[in-house]
TrEMBL record:
Pfam assignment, any one: LIAS_N
Protein name listed in UniProt: Lipoyl synthase
Enzymatic reactions: [[Fe-S] cluster scaffold protein carrying a second [4Fe-4S](2+) cluster] + N(6)-octanoyl-L-lysyl-[protein] + 2 oxidized [2Fe-2S]-[ferredoxin] + 2 S-adenosyl-L-methionine + 4 H(+) = [[Fe-S] cluster scaffold protein] + N(6)-[(R)-dihydrolipoyl]-L-lysyl-[protein] + 4 Fe(3+) + 2 hydrogen sulfide + 2 5'-deoxyadenosine + 2 L-methionine + 2 reduced [2Fe-2S]-[ferredoxin]
Organism: Paracoccus spongiarum
Organismal lineage: Bacteria, Pseudomonadati, Pseudomonadota, Alphaproteobacteria, Rhodobacterales
InterPro entries attached to this UniProt entry: Aldolase_TIM (IPR013785), Elp3/MiaA/NifB-like_rSAM (IPR006638), LIAS_N (IPR031691), Lipoyl_synth (IPR003698), rSAM (IPR007197), rSAM_sf (IPR058240)
């Protein structure tokens, strides 16, 4: 959201959710609360993003970690506009008809990455079902532009599922050689009809498996939210499904309800339960696991990438 934008009420920002009855938003426990962003580093990061007219999922999705990450100069760029063609019940990104792609955006992203001095950058996007390739080539162009301006930076992409895209869309992104390919499953398959109605669980799983088939050396990553109504057995089954698809890195975080019109918070999962999920995931063979209440896909992504790479080298050494 730009500084000049007036925040829209849920019925305007999310017209597809306007007919829903309000869901009570429970009080957050102490382990969820974060400080408001006020640091000089936060302001510098914000200014660089504004100067380059870039959107971030940090703001659009209302991430609770924005103050911490931006204070360190880390931001997750959201390409292809601020309007998504889907209306997932958990998501705070605007739903509607997107504008045409900005052909200069990849260059502006690359310039911002260089100016911020990022060593690891995460690029995500809205869903663009209106585009023939779902925006795959725009992802590829952005990766190439960053490589040109910041050749030493590592690149992580968090892509849509390309469910309605023409054949070859996924291949275009993989051929651009990001260091990490991330696509979130978001929740257990039984909750897809209410949480992620425009997506298909096994399509998303197959997408990640296909990345490994195209490039076995590329790191793959996926994440889910808890507190949506799933049970422990369902989460453990998702872990098994991810490992069957040879996914390297799993993230698990607490779902937070953006507005009363969004999917309700079923419960707040305790830090002890998250620790149990982390232990189980490592036991199933993931190279890297991040499971905390405040975990998000790109939270501490640079540090996690370094640990991910070290974990692979250690495993190869043992082999």
């Amino acid at each position: 959201m730009s500084e000049t934008t007036i925040p829209q009420p849920p019925r305007l920002r999310h017209p597809e959710k306007a007919h829903r009855s309000d869901q009570a938003q429970p009080k957050k426990p102490d382990w969820i609360r974060v400080k408001a962003p006020t640091s000089e580093g936060y302001r510098q990061t914000r200014d660089i993003l504004r100067e380059n007219r870039l959107s971030t999922v940090c703001e659009e999705a209302g991430c609770p970690n924005v103050g911490e990450c931006w204070s360190q100069g880390h931001a997750t760029m959201m390409i292809m506009g601020e309007i998504c063609t889907r209306g997932c019940s958990f998501c705070n990104v605007i739903t509607g008809k997107p504008q045409a792609l900005d052909v200069f955006e990849p260059g502006r992203v690359a310039h911002a990455v260089q100016k911020l001095g990022l060593k690891h950058v995460v690029i995500t996007s809205v869903d663009r079902d209106d585009l023939d390739d779902g925006g795959a080539e725009h992802f590829a162009q952005t990766i190439r532009a960053i490589r040109h301006r910041s050749p030493d930076a590592t690149i992580e992409v968090l892509t849509p599922d390309f469910l309605k895209s023409r054949p070859g869309a996924l291949e275009a992104v993989v051929e651009a050689r990001p260091d990490v390919f991330n696509h979130n499953l978001e929740t257990v398959p039984g909750l897809y009809p209410t949480v992620r109605p425009g997506a298909r669980y096994f399509h998303s799983l197959r997408l990640l498996q296909r990345v490994k088939e195209l490039d076995p050396a590329m790191f793959t990553k996926s994440g889910i939210m808890v507190g949506l109504g799933e049970d422990r057995q369902g989460v453990l089954q998702v872990m098994d499904d991810m490992r069957a698809a040879d996914i390297d890195f799993m993230t698990i975080g607490q779902y937070l309800q953006p507005t009363p019109k969004h999917h309700r918070v079923d419960r707040f999962v305790t830090p002890e339960e998250f620790a149990g999920y982390e232990k189980s995931a490592y036991g199933k063979g993931f190279l890297m696991v991040s499971a905390t209440p405040l975990t998000r896909s790109s939270y501490h992504a640079g540090d996690d990438f370094a640990r991910l790479r070290a974990a692979r080298l250690a495993r190869l050494g043992r082999a």
